[in-house]
Structures are given as C-alpha cells and as structure tokens.
C-alpha cells in the first residue's frame, strides 16, 4: 500500500534517482518496474519535485519587492492548513540560533551555514508530516 500525497512525486527507486518516469542510471520506466512482480520489494522515496531554474526565478521576482524593508518569513500554505503559526515560530527560532548568533553572519547577506540549512530542511519536513495538516 502506498500513501500518495498530492504534489509529491517519486524521487528514487532502490536509491537510484528518478527523472520524470525513468531511472537516471539505465533509463528503465518506473511504472513498468512497479507492474513486474519480480522487482519487489522496492524502496520508493516520495517527495516534492525540485523547482526548475525558471520557477525559482519567478518566485524570487514575485517576493523580492516584499523583502526590501527587512527580514520576513514567507510561508505559502492553503488557508485550510493549521499549524502555520507554529512553523513560523520554528523558522524564526532556527534563524535566531544559526544566523543571528553566528559571528560571521551580517544582516542583509545570504545565510551560508550548513547547520541552518539542515535544521530548516528538518523543520519543513516535520511540518509536512505533522504540523501542517488539512482541516
């Protein structure tokens, strides 16, 4: 039994990255692999698809003007989702711990800290699993 979440895609099968419908190493079709019983058991990793460069540019240009006056955290969520306030508090806590307390970080500069990135990713994954849920 698989749990499919809307907006998620297959990221890898048995540790091999998937691009579109095909494995990156040998080009096999993932759907054909699922149809063949002799391929089981399979380790399938699901997640949100990576943004393309054009999508990143579009999002950056959309929010750039709102970020001129100082630091703001933006969370794009469905209005029916709960726990957004908890996520925002957690994001600020991570920012405080790994950026503001870092003597090498200066305001208005990109945050270049592996611990910040790791904790931010963990907070987002945790909120997807538990905190942000549809009502």
TrEMBL record:
Family annotation (Pfam families): Sybindin (PF04099)
Superkingdom of origin: Eukaryota
Main location per the UniProt record: endoplasmic reticulum
Source species: Tegillarca granosa (Malaysian cockle)
Keyword tags: Endoplasmic reticulum, ER-Golgi transport, Golgi apparatus, Transport
Record localization: Endoplasmic reticulum; Golgi apparatus, cis-Golgi network; Golgi apparatus
InterPro entries per record: Longin-like_dom_sf, TRAPPC
Subunit structure of this chain's protein: Component of the multisubunit TRAPP (transport protein particle) complex, which includes at least TRAPPC2, TRAPPC2L, TRAPPC3, TRAPPC3L, TRAPPC4, TRAPPC5, TRAPPC8, TRAPPC9, TRAPPC10, TRAPPC11 and TRAPPC12. Interacts with SDC2. Part of the multisubunit transport protein particle (TRAPP) complex.
Protein name per the record: Trafficking protein particle complex subunit
Signal peptide: none
The protein's role, per its UniProt record: Core component of the TRAPP complexes which has a function of guanine nucleotide exchange factor activity for Rab1 GTPase. Plays a role in vesicular transport from endoplasmic reticulum to Golgi and autophagy. May play a role in dendrite postsynaptic membrane trafficking.
Family: Belongs to the TRAPP small subunits family. TRAPPC4 subfamily.
